[in-house]
Amino acid sequence: MKNQCKKIVCLLLAAALMLCLCACGNKASEDGAASKDGTHVVMDHRDIEVTVPNEVNRIVVCDILPLPSVLTVFFDSASKIVGMSQPSLTAAQNGLLGELYPEILNVETGFIDGTNVNIEELMKLQPDVVFYSASSPELGDKLLNAGFAAVAISVNKWDYNCIETLDHWIELIGQIFPENDKAEQVKKYSAEALDMVNERLETVPESERPRAFFLFKYDESTLMTSGGQFFGQWWADAIGAVNVGSELQTDNSVTVNMEQVYAWNPDLIFVTNFTTAGPDDLYQNTVGGYDWSAVDAVQNGRVYKMPLGMYRSYTPGVDTPVTLLWMAQTAYPDLFEDVDIVQAAKNYYKDVFGIELTEAQVSSIFAPSVAGGSGFEYQ
Length: 379
Prior knowledge:
- By secondary structure, the protein is α/β, with parallel strands linked by helices.
- It has helices spanning 2-37, 67-75, 86-94, 96-100, 119-124, 137-145, 162-176, 181-201, 231-238, 258-264, 279-283, 296-299, 320-331, 341-353, 359-366; strands at 39-43, 49-53, 59-61, 81-83, 112-113, 116-117, 129-133, 150-153, 211-215, 217-218, 223-226, 242-243, 253-255, 268-271, 303-305.
- The strands form five sheets. Strands 4-3-7-8 form a four-stranded parallel sheet, sandwiched between helices.
- The longest helix has 36 residues, at 2-37.
- The protein is globular, with a radius of gyration of 26 Å.
- The termini are far apart.
């Protein structure tokens, strides 16, 4: 009887072992199938599920202009980027991106004009992933219908908050590609810079906060600024300034005239790198028939060209933490007089990118070539 029981127990154990082995075999088979498929699904900023390859070697960026610089830093290389728009290339040619990662200067741009993408030319680039602006849903649908792994990236889903937007960009990129330590370091620097600025601004009463005007685009026929729903509003809030154009609630940049500027009479003017104009053009009235001589910011010599490092710093990008410190110091020179902005930039690039910037390179960030504003046409 005992021997019979032992036999039964042994048979049951053997059966259990076989079931376990079969289950493990099935699981291994399932995992193998998933691995052989070589894709995974991500949720983009249009809340669309997009199937992307596990291995991505060729990237095209359409109309999301700062993204090539963010991707380059993410990989510490531009070798995966095979296509981007001309305005992105122009910024790279006139900023640090092209100097530090010269391979990006050879990227193709002929497949896109504004938001108009030539599908045939894009196909020639054989991209594994195509990024586009979530603000261009028609373009996204066109890319998806053509069979591309098209991923939407948003600039305004987080109310134009440069730090929060950059964090979400990196989070989505991290879902497509392996985690990258540099991304985490950028986020850390941004948070620390914002905390320091906020702490110091607590002592500044509302009545003493400077009134700032953002000159987004400026030529003989066009004068555009940031209203309450564009990056200028976030920058003003972040550095404890008052955006004089906040009463304008049109999304993105807004066309204004000199009569409005006179009425606002700003204390500070920040000129973006989306225009080839610089401070001297306002001081000397060299553009069109505009006369800035009666504006306080011009009379007091407080017109500044925004920095241009990896990309035009008005938008989210890897230079955001350094730009935040520069803008806060520009608005409140006494409150931030202990901040060595040149050393801060050097430390940032060394700690995050492993790059020892020269004095000339640092100077180029804070005194950018006006050519960095060329190639951009407002859509």
